[in-house]
Design a protein that fits this description.
This protein is an alpha+beta fold and 459 residues long. It folds into 5 domains: 4-68, Immunoglobulin-like (Sandwich), CATH 2.60.40; 74-153, Immunoglobulin-like (Sandwich); 159-243, Sandwich (Immunoglobulin-like), CATH 2.60.40.10; 248-296, no CATH class; 306-456, no CATH class. The protein has helices at residues 248-259, 263-273, 276-279, 284-306, 392-396, 414-425, 433-443, and strands at residues 4-10, 17-21, 24-26, 33-40, 44-54, 57-68, 74-77, 82-85, 89-97, 101-106, 109-110, 118-124, 129-139, 144-153, 159-164, 169-172, 176-184, 189-194, 197-198, 201-204, 207-215, 219-229, 234-243, 307-313, 316-319, 337-346, 353-362, 365-372, 388-391, 400-408, 449-456. It has a 5-stranded mixed beta sheet, with no helix packed on it. A 5-stranded mixed beta sheet has the order 16-23-22-18-19, with no helix packed on it. A 4-stranded antiparallel beta sheet has the order 3-2-5-6, with no helix packed on it. It is rod-shaped. The chain starts with a strand and ends with a strand.
């Protein structure tokens, strides 16, 4: 593989002999020795001619061939340089690409070659253990090439460990599930999938970390994590997730319709939730809550079918129960007060007693007093009219009015009314309307009573 060589030799009977190298005369010593120094070689085959003459007579010709080879042999493997397998032994095959091969060594030992310079090496493997082997080829010029081969017999399946979720059976209201964990395996992973789709993971030392977010459908969701290492070992893990329908937003709408005395709208939402395709996705606790709302809607509808409360002002008879509407009252020129009455109209006999209170809001201070008390014992009759007044001056001071209505199945006796009045008079004037409502609810705790709030606005 050198770039230059020297040719050294001798000629017998050199007395009259002449030596030529490539038509160039070469001097001979008295003993007939000669030396041709620094002959340049090109890559591949180089041919030289030595001619020996006496006078002009040809005595001898000698051809010299020198092959310059600086390229190492090529070891071509029929297998990858890293092999993970479950087998007890492997046969490593391949061939060497070299025209002037001297030898092939495997772990320092010669390997016999077949036709075409092919080889087959049998190697036994220990379980769950990897070894690195060396294959080396040497040509006649001394050029060397080597190939390292890693063999590992892996008969142990990967382990999928979850950091989150901790349980394999999950009940949730959330629309997504965060999944995070790692796979333990000494072999590289061939694939890692979630429900058949490739999952991205990060390679660590003897493990693979992963995290993803899975979108959940309503009802049952089966999530399967599956991986296979290069040795062919397979591991899988299955999660069972039950996603329930979240009813908070629906409950807020139902509550809104109940407060605005629209039981039919509230029932539509409830019926939508109780449809077969939605009902099976409801949690048992929510079913109990929704059933309580169903009863509340039924009671409100029964009340509305039984009687109605009206605000009578400016010749208008405005129902205070039912779908909420904004009440617009205008003050004629030069008029500073509007008189109004509140009346109750019964459609049929019903043993309920309405108590209606007005809440007057003036800045941060509020007053509460009874507007109407019923006079009937067993049925609701039109109440004795009492005239009240809206003051333009008060309204301009940003006062607002609300009616809090109670429907009681309790006996309409004077002691109970006195206790009710005392409770109202002792209310903290800084309480909001909602807080007043809650206070009065607690007063009626244990009794069969319904409590509703009606707002009256002005423009």
């Amino acid at each position: 593989k050198e770039a230059v060589i020297d040719i050294v030799g001798n000629v017998s009977h050199p007395e009259k002999a002449l030596l030529f190298f490539q038509n160039r005369k070469i001097p001979l010593s008295s003993t007939g020795t000669f030396s041709i120094a620094k002959i340049k070689l090109r890559e591949g085959r180089n041919s030289f001619l030595l001619v020996l003459k006496e006078d002009k007579k040809l005595l001898e010709e000698k051809k010299i061939e020198v092959i310059r080879d600086t390229l190492p042999p090529k070891i071509l493997l029929d297998f990858p340089t890293s092999i993970y397998t479950q087998k007890e032994s492997l046969t490593l095959t391949g061939r060497v690409e070299e025209n002037h091969l001297h030898s092939l060594l495997y772990q320092g030992n010669p390997v016999s070659l077949s036709k075409g310079q092919t080889f087959a090496i049998h190697q036994k493997l220990s379980p769950n253990q990897g070894i690195t082997l060396k294959l080396e080829a040497v040509d006649l010029a001394g050029n060397r090439s080597s190939q390292k081969i890693y063999l590992c017999r892996d008969i142990q399946a990967p382990k999928i460990l979850l950091d989150f979720p901790k349980k394999k059976k999950i009940h949730t209201f959330k629309a997504t599930l965060a999944i995070q964990g790692k796979v333990l395996d000494t072999s590289p992973l061939d694939f890692f999938r979630l429900n058949g789709k490739d999952l991205t993971y990060t390679s660590l030392s003897k493990s693979y970390a992963f995290q993803t977010t899975y979108s959940l459908s309503l009802g049952e969701n089966v999530i399967q994590l599956k991986c296979r290492d290069r040795a062919g070992n397979i591991a899988s893990l299955r999660l069972w997730v039950r996603r329930y329908l979240k009813v908070e937003n629906y409950l807020q709408k139902i509550e809104h319709y109940l407060r605005s005395f629209q039981p039919q709208q509230a029932r539509k939402i409830l019926d939508k939730l109780f449809r077969s395709k939605n009902r099976r996705h409801l949690h048992q606790k929510d079913l109990v809550v929704l059933d309580a709302y169903r009863q509340k809607i039924t009671r409100l509808q029964k009340h509305l079918d039984t009687f109605q409360v009206f605000l009578n002002c400016q010749g208008r008879k405005i129902p205070l129960f039912g779908p909420w509407k904004k009440i617009t009252l205008s003050f004629p020129q030069g008029v500073d007060y509007l008189d109004y009455t509140i009346s109750v109209q019964s459609k049929k006999k019903y043993p309920l007693y309405p108590y209606i209170f007005q809440v007057e809001d003036n800045g941060n201070r509020r007053k509460c007093w009874i507007l109407i008390t019923p006079s009937a014992k067993n049925s609701i009759t039109p109440l004795q009219k009492k005239i009240y007044t809206f003051s333009l001056e008060d309204i301009q001071k940003k006062k607002s009015y609300s009616l809090i209505c109670f429907f009681s199945r309790s006996q309409n006796n004077k002691d109970w009314q006195k206790k009710l009045k005392k409770t109202i008079q002792n209310l903290d004037p800084l309480l909001s309307k909602e807080q007043i409502l809650e206070k009065l609810k607690s007063f009626f705790q244990g009794q069969k009573i319904e409590v509703y709030l009606v707002d009256i606005s002005f423009s």
